[in-house]
């Protein structure tokens, strides 16, 4: 299992939950093994969150770390669209996902491999509960 | 009430056992104790007896006994109000309706109402409707499913359809009430006919609206034994959205605009700290970058296109507020938000769900009020400062009622009874002063708050209030001490 800190801010809690979905399925560990990267995720209009990947550990902090390897910015609506099944490439081409330091292509692809399926799981859970709530 | 002598106590107990049966009467300290206090800082008082009625005749008999002997009566349902409303201020007999007088007597499909006994809970009513009347729905409040539906209606609580339909006090079609001398009266359209009939509880007008003599009186004028509440057509689509907002005035404006758009069932805003509490952070501290409020917006619709049209209007409202305030609000589907932030937030949406932040501490107190919507932004800002001053996590809960005719403003404090009660109470006093200064009127208010309110109100209203109370309860047996009278 991955070793997480317990973030105290609302976006940090959200990202911790998202990654937790994959971790509980055993999908996260192979993806982050020996991945020493710092990724900033910013929800447009809100604030940035830094994810530090280190061995089996992920630390999530409510700020943009200097010297990040990658920064991904998107809106809540785009996160929702990704969770509903929209492709990340499509969202990128539409200008809804913005990436800084895109030349770190390997880092970008690895991060998308981590986060997009996690968003999908969230979307599936939401759809399931939506049905139970008559929506 | 003077302390009962042993002889008097024994005599009353014998008569109560004759009315209710010995198994439904107690004067044992360990049975009485849970009825002596609630989650608030209100001073505890022990009752002398607890009785469990099953039939109206028994309520009539106990009212006559109380009237004759001068022993107070306190109606009780689930006891989880946060205003000390069922603490027996002067001792006496607690009449606990929750155990045996909790039947759903009738659901009228075409007139859309349910006649309830006082012990019926929200969870019970929901299950009954889901099982037997799937085309109808009632509502749920910001309270656990074991909360009493009749108590909440009689005290003008609110629910998940309050933006569309207003206070639950407005949803009452009629009541059956036992007066101080044991007279049983039916109030509302059910007054037609000499006997109780389940088919004529459809409205409370156009006769003189005597319900006003009982609604919001906290059991001081009579004991309600039946209550007809309005039900609503269940729409095929029921869903919800979550708004996120930065800025106190921005949040207030967003709420007002959504209310006026008349497409939502309800809107309730909570401090972002509350959302964090519900996903497992017991004492959250807001970082400056975080939004100030999360807003739950239930919406129902007849068809998918109907829902899409409503959502388009809701999005337009968000866009309008963002144009004015600079992109400070966001909207997403509730289910997506819950999956992202944590399943704990689902407790805020639909029954059965116990809102964990409300029940995880030994103490819970509030300033709950009906508020002028135009002052909500100021109230949020100043309340936030009071929470910080007293070092409690911000816990504001607010609604827009009946499309915006009025609002709800609540400041809630969860605290540890053994160590934080005094601090919580001082904060409550400041919330009261803040609220009254901005035109708020406390509801389900504890005695101390009512006493304080008296300093701010029309003295002739108070005189009228006392006269009505004197008329309805000349011997002072009906929940005495409430409102300090």
Q: Would you mind describing this structure in some detail?
A:
The complex is a heterodimer of chains A (135) and B (485). Chain A has 135 residues and is of the alpha/beta class. Chain A has a single domain (3-130), classed as Nonspecific Lipid-transfer Protein, Chain A, CATH 3.30.1050. In chain A, 46% of the residues lie in helices and 22% in strands. Chain A is built from five helices and six strands, in the order βααββββααβα. In chain A, strands 1-4-3-2-5-6 form a six-stranded mixed beta sheet. In chain A, β2 and β3 (48-54) form a beta hairpin. The longest helix of chain A is centred in the C-terminal third of the chain and has 28 residues, at 105-132. The termini of chain A are far apart. Chain B has 485 residues and is of the alpha+beta class. Chain B folds into three domains: 6-99 and 475-484, Uridine Diphospho-n-acetylenolpyruvylglucosamine Reductase, domain 2 (2-Layer Sandwich), CATH 3.30.43.10; 104-233, Uridine Diphospho-n-acetylenolpyruvylglucosamine Reductase, domain 3; 237-440, Vanillyl-alcohol Oxidase, Chain A, domain 3. Chain B has 15 helices and 19 strands. Chain B has helices at 6-20, 29-32, 56-69, 122-132, 149-154, 162-165, 248-261, 272-278, 304-325, 334-341, 356-359, 376-389, 421-437, 447-453, 459-472, and strands at 25-26, 49-51, 73-76, 93-96, 104-108, 113-116, 136-137, 172-178, 184-188, 223-230, 232-233, 237-245, 268-271, 293-301, 329-333, 363-371, 396-401, 406-415, 441-442. In chain B, the strands form four sheets. In chain B, strands 15-12-14-13-17-18-16-19 form an eight-stranded antiparallel beta sheet. Chain B has a five-stranded antiparallel beta sheet with strand order 5-6-10-8-9. A four-stranded mixed beta sheet of chain B has the order 1-2-4-3. In chain B, β17 and β18 (406-415) form a beta hairpin.
């Amino acid at each position: 299992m991955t070793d997480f800190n317990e973030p105290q801010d609302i976006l940090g809690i959200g990202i911790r939950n998202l990654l937790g979905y994959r971790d509980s399925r055993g999908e996260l560990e192979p993806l982050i093994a020996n991945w020493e990267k710092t990724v900033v995720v910013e929800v447009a209009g809100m604030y940035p969150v830094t994810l530090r990947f280190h061995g089996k550990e992920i630390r999530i902090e409510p700020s943009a770390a200097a010297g990040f390897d990658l920064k991904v910015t998107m809106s809540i609506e785009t996160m929702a669209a990704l969770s509903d099944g929209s492709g990340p490439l499509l969202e990128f081409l539409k200008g809804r996902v913005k990436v800084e330091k895109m030349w770190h292509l390997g880092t970008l692809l690895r991060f998308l491999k981590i986060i997009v399926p996690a968003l999908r799981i969230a979307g599936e859970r939401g759809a399931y509960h939506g049905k139970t709530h008559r929506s | 009430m003077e302390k009962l002598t042993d002889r008097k106590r024994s005599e009353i107990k014998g008569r109560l056992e004759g009315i209710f049966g010995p198994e439904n009467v107690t004067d044992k300290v360990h049975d009485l104790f849970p009825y002596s206090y609630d989650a608030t800082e209100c001073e505890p008082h022990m009752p002398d007896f607890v009785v469990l009625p099953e039939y109206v005749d028994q309520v009539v008999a106990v009212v006559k006994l109380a009237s004759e002997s001068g022993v107070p009566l306190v109606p009780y349902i689930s006891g989880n109000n946060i205003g000390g409303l069922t603490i027996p201020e002067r001792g006496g007999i607690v009449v606990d309706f929750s155990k045996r007088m909790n039947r759903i007597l009738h659901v009228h499909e075409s007139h859309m109402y349910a006649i309830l006994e006082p012990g019926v809970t929200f969870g019970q009513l929901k299950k009954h409707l889901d099982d037997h009347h799937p085309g109808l729905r009632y509502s749920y409040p910001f309270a656990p499913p074991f909360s009493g539906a009749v108590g909440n209606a009689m005290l003008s609580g609110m629910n998940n359809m309050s933006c569309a339909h207003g206070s639950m006090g407005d949803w009452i079609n009629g009541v059956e009430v036992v007066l101080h001398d044991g007279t049983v009266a039916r109030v509302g359209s059910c007054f037609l006919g000499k006997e109780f009939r389940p088919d004529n509880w459809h409205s409370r007008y156009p006769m003189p609206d005597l319900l006003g003599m009982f609604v919001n009186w906290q059991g001081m004028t009579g004991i309600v034994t039946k209550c007809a509440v309005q039900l609503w057509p269940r729409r095929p689509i029921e869903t919800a959205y979550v708004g996120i907002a930065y800025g106190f005035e921005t949040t207030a404006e967003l709420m007002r605009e959504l209310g006026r758009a008349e497409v939502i069932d309800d809107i309730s805003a909570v401090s972002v700290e509350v959302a964090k509490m519900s996903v497992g952070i017991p004492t959250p501290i807001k970082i400056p970058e975080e939004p100030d409020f999360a807003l739950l917006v239930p919406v129902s619709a007849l068809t998918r296109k109907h829902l899409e049209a409503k959502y388009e209007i809701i999005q337009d409202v968000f866009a309008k507020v963002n144009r004015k305030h600079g992109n400070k609000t966001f909207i997403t589907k509730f289910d997506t938000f819950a999956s992202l932030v944590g399943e704990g937030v689902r407790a805020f949406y639909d029954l059965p769900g116990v809102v964990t932040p409300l029940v995880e501490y030994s103490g819970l107190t509030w300033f709950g009020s009906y508020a002028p919507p135009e002052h909500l932004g100021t109230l949020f800002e100043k309340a936030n400062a009071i929470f910080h001053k007293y070092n409690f996590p911000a816990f504001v809960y607010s609604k827009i009622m009946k499309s915006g005719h009025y609002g709800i403003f609540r400041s809630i404090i969860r605290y540890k009874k053994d160590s934080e009660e005094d601090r919580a109470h001082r904060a409550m006093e400041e919330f009261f002063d803040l609220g009254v200064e901005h035109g708020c009127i406390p509801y389900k208010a504890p005695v101390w708050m009512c006493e304080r309110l008296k300093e701010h109100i029309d003295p002739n209203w108070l005189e009228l209030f006392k006269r009505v109370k004197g008329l309805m309860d000349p011997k002072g047996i009906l929940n005495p001490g409430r409102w300090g009278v």
